[in-house]
C-alpha cells in the first residue's frame, strides 16, 4: 500500500512568490511599452499640428500677397507679419485643445 505524503506547504508558497515576481516583471515591461507607444503617439500628433499651423501661416501670407518678406531688401511690414503670427497662434490654440 502506498503512503499518503503530507503536502509540502513551503514549496507551494515559494512557487506563489515566484509567480508574483514574474508577474511584476512582465507587467512592468508591458506597461513601459504601452506608455511609450502612447507618448510617441502624442509626439507625432503634436508634430502634425505644428506642421499644419506652419502650412496655414504660409497660406495666409501667400493670400495676402506679401512676397517681399523673403527678399534681401526685407520690406516686410510688421503688421502683416504679426497677422501671420497671430493666425498661426490662433490655429494652434484652436486645434490642440
Structure description:
This protein is an all-alpha fold and 97 residues long. It has one domain (9-95). The protein contains two helices and no strands. It has helices at 9-63, 78-95. The protein is rod-shaped.
Comma- or semicolon-separated keywords:
2 helices; about 100 residues; mainly alpha
What's the SSE blueprint?
Layout: H1 9-63, H2 78-95
Q: What string gives the helices and strands in order? A: HH
Q: What's the domain count?
A: 1
Largest sheet: none
Oligomer, anyone?
single chain
**Which stretches of 5+ consecutive residues score pLDDT under 50?**
none
Count of alpha and pi helical runs: 2
The average pLDDT value, as a whole number, equals 77
Give me a quick take on this structure.
The chain is mainly α and 97 residues long.
Amino acid at each position: 500500500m502506498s503512503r499518503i505524503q503530507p503536502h509540502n506547504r513551503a514549496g507551494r508558497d515559494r512557487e506563489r512568490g515566484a509567480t508574483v515576481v514574474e508577474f511584476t516583471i512582465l507587467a512592468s515591461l508591458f506597461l513601459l511599452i504601452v506608455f511609450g507607444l502612447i507618448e510617441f503617439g502624442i509626439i507625432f500628433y503634436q508634430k502634425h499640428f505644428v506642421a499644419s499651423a506652419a502650412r496655414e501661416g504660409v497660406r495666409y501670407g501667400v493670400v495676402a500677397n506679401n512676397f517681399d518678406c523673403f527678399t534681401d531688401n526685407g520690406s516686410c511690414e510688421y503688421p502683416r507679419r504679426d497677422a501671420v503670427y497671430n493666425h498661426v497662434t490662433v490655429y494652434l490654440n484652436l486645434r490642440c485643445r
